[in-house]
Amino acid sequence: MIIRIKDKIKNLNIVIGCPIGCRYCYARNNCRRFHITEVFSKPEFYENKLRLFNTKEPRVFLLTGMSDLAYWKKEWLEKVLKKAEETPRNIYLFLTKRPELLDIYTELDNVWFGVTITCAAERNRADLLKRNVKAKHYHLTFEPLSDEVGEIDLDDIDWVVIGTETGNCKGKISTKKSWAKGLAKQAMSKNIPVFMKEDLFGILDEEEMTQQFPKEFKL
Ligand code: SF4
């Protein structure tokens, strides 16, 4: 059975807005459609959502589903990390496409920092992340892919997610089977859990889909 990642990892969009302007950004489209923010390129912090960190059961949250960590204000991240420290049963995931702008140090065991890599030219994002963010856990997301990423430095990486572009955005590029399988093979050879998102089903056969979560997620 194919697992949908959103059934396991909840989006908690505590910051909404991002100036990067990716062609395929669904968050920008949703913000326009549902009038969530005035100007999507100006991130806003929804501090009242910190109460949602107080869960009864342990949860894994993605905090950057509608933003990029690099454009969070320092005080926003400080408040979020303080709340993460108070709720160690939960895991909090962050993603960025601009690791060169970050300067973070944390000893928290329940916060995971990641970069999105969409092509071979962005491979160095993994190293920039590890250089600029000193944390206990790192993850990589390869989505949407526009070419073959090739050999990647996976040292200290704890989770790899692979996906494809969805929707009907102009210029849409689907992940090729060989690109996804090549990345998964590299990660699995280092015993790194790999999660192929549900949208890859169809590009890959069910028996070729790998859907693993890190043991720390307890999912
Ligand atoms: S980085 Fe994410 S939130 Fe920002 S524009 Fe790109 S897809 Fe949208």
Notes on the structure:
The chain is of the alpha/beta class and 219 residues long. The protein has one domain (5-217). It has four helices and eleven strands, in the order ββαββαβββαβββαβ. It has helices spanning 26-34, 74-86, 125-132, 177-189, and strands at residues 10-11, 15-16, 44-45, 60-62, 91-96, 104-105, 111-116, 133-134, 137-142, 157-162, 194-196. The strands form three sheets. It has a seven-stranded parallel sheet with strand order 1-4-5-7-9-10-11, covered by helices on one side. A two-stranded antiparallel ribbon has the order 2-3. The model has no long low-confidence stretch (mean pLDDT 96). Iron/sulfur cluster binds next to α1. Iron/sulfur cluster (SF4) binds next to α1.
